[in-house]
Design brief:
This protein is α/β, with parallel strands linked by helices. It is built from twelve helices and 17 strands. It binds S-adenosylmethionine.
Amino acid sequence: MSTVQWTENGTTHSARWHSENGTPPPRRIVVADDRLTAAAALRFARAGTGMLWRGDFPNARQLVRAMDRRLPQRPGSFAEVRSARAERATLLGKVLVSVEADHSLQLRRAPDIRAACEHAFGGLPGTLLSLRELLGALSAYQWHQKGIYLQALNARIYPSYSVFAPTRSEYLELVAQEPLPGNGSPTAFDLGTGTGVLAAILARRGAAEVLATDLNPRAVQCARDNLRQLGLSGRVQVLETDLWPSARRADLVVCNPPWLPGKPASALELGIYDASSAMLNRFLDGLPGHLTPHGEGWLILSDLAEHLGLRTRAELLDRISAAGLQVAGRRETMPRHRRATDSGDPLHAARSRERTTLWRLTRSRA
Ligand SMILES: C[S@@+](CC[C@H](N)C(=O)[O-])C[C@H]1O[C@@H](n2cnc3c(N)ncnc32)[C@H](O)[C@@H]1O
């Protein structure tokens, strides 16, 4: 963890610097309060200057929203939209807050952040961080406490900070409805388990034993907590592992990899971007060697990457056959989340055509 220095009332101060994705601290920091306008804040941000907020807490949130509104959102290629989004995050991330040694924010009308900081970061005493990052932790903590009710489970799942949350229900229904292979109580793997939701659906449907893996340690903890709370710990084991659990085989291997090829910039983005489609390809390549003779692999994949020009359907099908697999069936559904119909989204043209598919894969007979 690096440290950061600034001058306030003629005195030099220093604190620890926190950035979840490793963004370095601003080179220069000025002290700011309620008098700062969004236009002036954007000028500071564009010059790489951090603004340490000493005003009213809700006003700081308003300031960031006002800065955001001043930044245009233009449709473009996926790479352009992603790079504009990263630039926007850099600018908005220049509004900073200081967490005191006692975990308080010494700001008017500030919320109690202790539990959220403990949940997200294991505590942050005496630290400077961007307000946006803190707001992300506060919002994640609310989701964590409230949970998300899932029809496919008839129960709530409690996501954690930086863990992929199943806010889209369409792919869960695909997994909940597809007939299970074999005798109806298969052994199963869930690769990239996130909150543990797919492992839980399989266990609830009668899978005899599920091995779930994830690379993100927070996801592993989150999945274990969810499975315990659902009373399924006895049948689901969660391992912190890079994709495949062991040399063992299973009757069913489920994998919902990140749907977009691209480099993840944070632990949360491990659930959204798959660098060079490595997770998808390693799932396909490893599948024949991990299936029992009549076993099935269920690949959950949206075709958004195809509509964005990041992958073609032919490439996916070629990859499936090159791995020694065949498509035994597929079930497709339309996403119903809010962004699918948001015409203001810069990726609207692609999102409006998106379909999510459960690909049922078996070993080639050849
Ligand atoms: C799209 S999310 C799916 C999460 C969950 N299965 C669901 O359906 O909601 C993909 C998950 O894969 C995990 N992941 C990414 N790369 C991985 C790897 N090499 N090994 C294991 N898990 C990985 C991410 O941390 C993330 O939790």
